[in-house]
Specification:
- The chain has 257 residues and is α/β, with parallel strands linked by helices.
- It has 2 domains: 172 residues, 3-Layer(aba) Sandwich (Rossmann fold); 74 residues, no CATH class.
- It is 35% helix and 23% strand.
- The protein is built from 10 helices and 10 strands.
- It has a 6-stranded mixed beta sheet, sandwiched between helices. It has a 4-stranded antiparallel beta sheet with strand order 2-1-4-5, covered by helices on one side.
- Helix 7 crosses helix 10.
- The longest helix is centred in the middle third of the chain and has 14 residues.
Length: 257
């Protein structure tokens, strides 16, 4: 079966400095996959290579078998991949509903249609309402997005990420800055909205990682040193050493308090 996402010997240099040093990664369709590693390991750079923000210096990146390395982000998005960012990206002056409506327009074929009145687009309205219900924000439908709490803004961004119907979802630290209760809620939301989709996430909270991921890849100094199930990663000595002596069990326990 063709992998949803496949990186083969992907490398990225900035000047003479090689940041990503031959990453190999294969993620099957429908898998929830976490990319973890210490600060500076190259996780965000890897995400940027997948989503088109950076072009690989060498190697291949494939989405459902099609080469996407070096393509522009909007082209990759239209091929079925969507991502969120560490810093929340929403239209702060628009309502929650309007943010979601903007996110579904292209996928429904409207593109640059200046002659359509938004209020008359029934399919756009219905799809936005579906996503609104899916993320549990019907009560905030008409609220200005910039006035939402931080956790609500992150939930809205997840809604925007999935609204276009992408089958491969990249989430960059989706629970960063949240309290434990907010994080628990976010995990349940992510689990619900990614049913039947392929999820790849970068996340520092090990309790989130072990609670969501089917498999985990560990990136250290631009190389994947292990890819395995959560339990196998938890017990991997090389992985523990990569976290400078702090075991993953300790991190997961700390995250639960």
């Amino acid at each position: 079966m063709t992998a949803a996402l496949e990186l083969t010997d992907v490398r990225k240099k900035f000047g003479q400095t090689e940041i990503i040093r031959g990453v190999n990664l294969s993620i099957p369709k429908g898998e929830r996959h976490a990319l973890i590693g210490p600060n500076g390991a190259g996780k965000s750079t890897t995400f940027n290579l997948i989503s088109g923000r950076f072009a690989p210096s060498s190697g291949t990146v494939r989405l459902n078998g099609a080469e996407i390395g070096g393509l522009q982000p909007f082209v990759i998005n239209r091929m079925g991949l969507s991502r969120s960012f560490q810093i929340t990206n929403i239209f702060h002056r628009l309502s929650v509903f309007e943010n979601l409506r903007c996110a579904v327009l292209w996928s429904l074929g409207y593109k640059y249609s200046f002659w359509h009145r938004l209020k008359g687009l029934r399919d756009t309205r219905e799809r936005a309402e579906e996503v609104l219900e899916l993320i549990g924000m019907q009560h905030r439908r008409d609220s200005q997005a910039g006035l939402l709490t931080y956790a609500e803004q992150r939930a809205l961004e997840i809604g925007i990420t999935i609204a276009g119907g992408a089958e491969v979802i990249l989430l960059d630290e989706p629970t960063a800055g949240m309290s434990r209760s907010e994080s628990d809620h976010a995990v349940e939301l992510i689990r619900k909205v990614t049913v039947g989709k392929t999820l790849v996430m970068v996340e520092h909270d090990m309790s989130v990682v072990f609670g969501l991921a089917d498999r985990i890849s560990v990136l250290v100094y631009g190389e994947v040193i292990a890819t395995d199930t959560p339990q196998a990663i938890r017990n991997n000595r090389k992985v523990k050493e990569a976290y400078l002596g702090t075991t993953l069990d300790e991190e997961a326990t700390e995250g639960a308090h």
